[in-house]
Amino acid sequence: MFELGVKFLLSYFIGSIMGALTVGKLSGNVDIRDVGSGNAGGTNALRTQGFLFALGVVIIDVGKGIVAVSFVPDWMIPVAVDELQIGHEVLVYCCACAAVMGHVWPVWHQFRGGKGAATLIGAYLAISPFLVIILLAVFIVTLVVFGFVGLATMMAGVGVAVFLLIKGTSYTDPLFIFTALMASYLIYTHRSNIHRMLNGTEPKNQKMMIFSKK
Question: How far apart are CA 72 and CA 78, in angstroms?
């Protein structure tokens, strides 16, 4: 458990490096948590700061998910500890979860972060790039039909878990458990979006909606 704890914390610290706040610091101390929706993620960055700012945010936030999954699990801890070995697959998923949690509750930024989607995409890219295709397909379909970015993000997370079940993956498989947990986590982090949708105050991306009246 020592190895799991160390690598979980390391992945969490990596996840706590916020793309929006890092780019904002380099762009004249802009804190996008004080503008727009107040979320330190790519969507709010794009809406309030423009494309190039948002691109930098996405690169950092996706990249830290890739790093946490691709490198941290294989890191050789320079301390000899006799303990029960953790399976590599389980270690990978734990590191991925930790990175997403770090993005949502970053220790470096007063625990006020984003909603986890970009970092989760990075984790999926390292775990199985095909799952990213499924995730993006569900996201795009939901967005063009309903126009809600938050709803599209939640449905994308759920869609990956549903796809695995349809493919025949057991609900006890670590990969399915991970995708189901992450889908639930995305729903939790988007609870404010759900509240606004129910109240009719959630903004729609009309340009993306193929059935909207122009």
Answer: 13
Indicate if 80 and 174 belong to the same structural domain: no
Which of 66, 68, 173, 188 minimizes the C-alpha distance to 124?
Answer: 66
Mean pLDDT of the 181-191 span = 96
Give the mean model confidence (pLDDT) for residues 48-52: 85
List, for residues 106-117, the tens digit of each pLDDT value.
998 889 888 999
What CA–CA distance (Å, rounded) separates 134 from 155?
Answer: 11
The pLDDT of residue 130: 96
Q: Please spell the DSSP secondary structure of the chain, one letter per residue.
A: -HHHHHHHHHHHHHHTS-HHHHHHHHTTS--GGGSTT---SHHHHHHHH-HHHHHHHHHHHHHHHHHHHHTGGG---SS----PPPPHHHHHHHHHHHHHHHHHS-GGGTT----SHHHHHHHHHHH-HHHHHHHHHHHHHHHHHH--HHHHHHHHHHHHHHHHHHHT--TTSHHHHHHHHHHHHHHHHTHHHHHHHHHT-S---GGG-TTS--
Q: Is residue 54 part of a domain?
A: yes
The residue type found at 153 is: T
Domain count, the chain: 2
